[in-house]
Design goal:
The complex is a heterodimer of chains A (382) and B (390).
Chain A (H helix, E strand, L loop, with lengths): L2 H5 L2 H10 L3 H14 L5 H12 L4 E6 L5 H7 L6 H8 L1 E5 L7 H14 L5 E5 L2 E2 L8 E2 L2 E2 H10 L3 E5 H6 L12 E2 L1 H5 L5 E2 L6 H14 L12 H4 L3 H4 L3 H6 L9 H4 L18 H4 L59 H27 L14
Parallel strand pairs in A: 1-2, 1-3, 3-7, 7-9
Antiparallel strand pairs in A: 4-8, 5-6
Chain B lengths: L19 H23 L15 H13 L2 H11 L9 H22 L20 H27 L3 H34 L14 H27 L6 H29 L10 H19 L3 H4 L2 H25 L13 H24 L7 H8 L1
Helix pairs in contact in B: 1-12, 2-4, 2-11, 2-12, 3-4, 3-6, 3-7, 4-5, 4-12, 5-6, 6-7, 7-8, 7-11, 8-9, 9-11
The chains are: A alpha/beta (382), B mainly alpha (390).
Chain lengths: 382, 390
């Protein structure tokens, strides 16, 4: 089925009426989804067909220790009708932020959705889960986060962690981690698909869901559960400032000449070289060129990467996973030398002592045992 | 020239090459080589403590600046023999030259260890890269040239060994020119090592910063050269059980003493005239090191002042050691202790750095032992000398 044909498909026409969006916008959305996942052109049609016709999957969305930024970023995706589409693509049966219902009514809705779609619903987890003191630091409807997650995950078709908190602990797990927060995967004891980021790019999440919808399975993931289409490349590899890095042109401080000229932000602590994400490729907020942190002149903080974001200081130099800049270039902080170490002092003293001792022994030996050629029969210079 | 004085001709010493001493020296060289391997794989920062404030550590200050001064034996003796025509010292030329050859060659090699971008070393020899106003350029070019000159100067020993008498004859015709260069070049770069400090300006402590530094460096290099000759003669006579040439060493020490006295007088007058004399009474590491340096320079003057002590090999040896130590401390003081580039910078050699320098010394001694056993360098004993002369 070609893209042109599907545009006139009656299911698309129906969707056009239902959502009040143009077919063009809808096809653009489907093309964006396919492009984000790196799927071939004919996948666009499959996606469009699937979105337009398939029964919307039930989604239960849990919030634990988080700031709701993931949900916000999803809802603030700037396509004018995207939120409508999202709500059309999925049947969001439980979402604390978006629910009109409250209290027992909300919990009842969750239980009934779980029962009705047993084994078929998608569980999305947003936020880290506290484990300290039996998880009492996060409770919803009298249940701890641990209990709620385990209950919901038991019958889910798929569990997806959204945001860095649910993916690897995120900000709540920043040392000293007072509530003992961990990721959803750690609670469930398995690697689950996750979309890290703070917030994650909404397209990475939507693409994952649409993939599930279109092909009936989740996209291919790496060893720690991140979809490969989004997290298999370092930010550094696709960064628009990469050429400056290779040429050794760095911004040394905010507002300096290099910064104004858009040089590489590595020396301001950019974590691009150790962070896997597709930010430079798909950008943020749908406002066009340079709309991502490095594009606006701020170093990447490595928000998708465990052990980088919220752990390393923002301006600390990144670990270079691929190549090192030439060592001839100046460092931000030049080491000033360590001075005398115990080992060096001992060794110096030992050498001086050995030299002195050997000299003394030698002098004594010369005084006693060495034959002298006094040159009594010396031929005087002619 | 040697023929007119009827000295015993140089002859190979023979004897075993593998002894506990040579094994120990080889082990020290091996340690240094391992460290240097690390340096060339992981870079200079991986093994040394040098930094942007102290861009030169002991690999330059010891291996090159001090190493080349200790290698001035050949230069000093050549000055005496060829410039002042004191042929009586001729038997000392070859052993002194061998030590110098090692000292300078290793100094040249030592520079490579210390150069961050050692692969650009050849730029020194390429006119397009030359910066003729640079003191460092003068030092680098001059030392490189001197190393080549010394190998030529020393080549008769190889040619004799391998029986290339015709080549030796041809070389002998040119040798006067090479010898003249051999006397000129060290005068240039040994003084330039002092000029390097002059261009550092106020970064060098007033106790050492002086416009006379080139002269001081040259004079101490020559006196150290004599001291090293005495030192080596004592060591080889003791180590190889050979008679000690006291008649020559005693006279040599007198020359050394005269030079030393002039140096000390100039040094003190310079301190007074520059108004730096007060600095030596401050409570500081610089003042302490200054007193150690001066003490070691004055000690040989006192020890060797009486003619009787100049005939005592053990006293002579002690004086030579003091003088070498004094030259060592002078260079350490002016290049490292009295050198300050700004607040916060520190330098003290790291253990691997020191081990590399120890390895270099071990290599020099090892090479000396091997070559005097293998090549005709030390004066033969009188019996064998008669045999070879006739």
């Amino acid at each position: 089925m070609s893209e042109n044909n599907i545009e006139n498909d009656e299911s698309i026409v129906a969707l056009e009426k239902r959502l009040g969006i143009s077919r063009r916008s809808f096809m653009q959305f489907c093309a964006a989804m396919a492009a984000t996942m790196g799927l071939p052109n004919d996948a666009v049609a499959a996606i469009a067909k699937a979105v337009a016709t398939k029964k919307r999957p039930s989604v239960i969305w849990l919030h634990f220790q988080e700031c709701t930024g993931c949900t916000e970023s999803l809802l603030r995706a700037e396509h004018p009708t995207l939120e409508k589409l999202i709500l059309d693509v999925i049947s969001l049966d439980y979402h604390e932020t978006l629910f009109a219902a409250a209290g027992h009514q909300a919990e009842a809705a969750r239980r009934s959705a779980m029962k009705a779609n047993k084994g078929k619903y998608i569980l999305v987890v947003e936020g880290a889960i506290p484990t300290k003191d039996n998880g009492i630091y996060c409770k919803i409807g009298g249940q701890t986060a641990i209990e709620m997650l385990k209950e919901c995950a038991a019958d889910a078709a798929a569990v997806i962690a959204i945001g860095s908190c649910a993916s690897w602990g995120g900000m709540p797990s920043t040392p000293p981690n007072p509530t003992g927060s961990v990721s959803a995967g750690e609670i469930l004891g398995k690697v689950i698909p996750n979309i890290p980021g703070c917030p994650p790019n909404p397209y990475n999440f939507l693409s994952t869901v649409v993939h599930f919808l279109t092909f009936g399975k989740l996209p291919e993931v790496d060893a720690i559960g991140r979809p490969k289409f989004a997290y298999s490349r370092l930010i550094h590899e696709n960064c628009e400032r990469r050429a400056h890095f290779d040429a050794g042109r760095f911004a040394m401080e905010f507002g300096d000449e290099g910064h104004r000229k858009g040089y590489c932000l590595y020396k301001l602590g950019c974590k691009g070289p150790e962070t896997y994400a597709n930010c430079p490729a798909i950008l943020f907020g749908d406002v066009g060129n340079a709309s991502w942190p490095v594009g606006t002149g701020h170093p990447c903080i490595g928000c998708t990467e465990k052990g980088v974001a919220f752990t390393k200081p923002i301006h600390e130099l990144a670990v270079l996973k691929t190549i090192s800049p030439p060592v001839g270039l100046p460092r931000i902080i030049e080491e000033q030398g360590v001075g005398v170490t115990l080992g060096a002092a001992v060794l110096t003293a030992a050498v001086a002592g050995a030299a002195f001792g050997a000299g003394k022994k030698m002098a004594e030996n010369l005084g006693k045992n060495v034959k002298l050629d006094e040159g009594h029969d010396e031929r005087t210079p002619s | 020239m040697s023929a007119s004085h009827n000295h015993p001709a140089p002859a190979p010493l023979g004897g075993p090459l593998v002894t506990p001493t040579t094994k120990l020296l080889a082990a020290l060289v091996a340690i240094a080589l391992v460290i240097l391997l690390v340096r060339f794989i992981f870079g200079i920062g991986a093994v040394t403590n040098i930094n942007d404030g102290y861009t030169w550590g002991i690999w330059v200050v010891y291996d090159v600046v001090i190493g080349s001064a200790f290698a001035c034996g050949g230069y000093s003796v050549a000055l005496l023999v060829y410039i002042f025509n004191k042929g009586e010292y001729h038997p000392m030329v070859r052993p002194a030259l061998l030590a110098s050859l090692f000292g300078y060659t290793l100094a040249g090699v030592g520079v490579i260890f210390d150069l961050g971008r050692y692969w650009n070393f050849w730029h020194i020899f390429w006119p397009g890269y030359a910066q003729p106003n640079s003191v460092m350029f003068e030092v680098a070019l001059c030392i490189s040239a001197y190393i080549i000159v010394m190998w030529l100067e020393f080549s008769p020993a190889f040619l004799e060994k391998f029986g290339k008498q015709d080549v030796k004859k041809k070389l002998n015709k040119l040798l006067f020119f090479i010898i003249a260069l051999g006397a000129l070049l060290p005068s240039m770069h040994q003084s330039s090592l002092g000029s390097l400090l002059v261009v550092f300006g106020y970064q060098v402590h007033p106790l050492w910063q002086s416009i006379l530094l080139p002269l001081f460096y040259l004079m101490t290099a020559i006196t150290i050269g004599f001291a090293v000759v005495i030192f080596e003669a004592c060591l080889s006579s003791s180590g190889f059980k050979r008679p000690l040439e006291m008649h020559l060493l005693g006279k040599l020490s007198k020359v050394m003493l005269g030079m030393l006295a002039v140096y000390l007088a100039l040094r003190v007058v310079d301190l007074v005239l520059r108004g730096a004399i007060g600095s030596m009474f401050s409570i500081s590491i610089e003042a302490l090191m200054f007193w150690i340096e001066m003490g070691l320079f004055i000690a040989p003057l006192v020890i060797l002042s009486k003619p009787a002590t100049r005939r005592n090999p053990s006293k002579l040896f002690i004086a030579a050691c003091c003088l070498m130590a004094a030259g060592f401390i002078l260079r350490i003081n002016s290049y490292l202790v009295g050198y300050e580039t700004g607040p916060g910078w520190h330098y003290f050699p790291s253990v691997p750095e020191i081990m590399v320098s120890i390895g270099m010394i071990a290599l020099e001694i090892l090479g000396y032992i091997v070559l005097v056993r293998y090549l005709p360098i030390l004066p033969g004993s009188n019996n064998s000398a008669i045999a070879t002369n006739k």
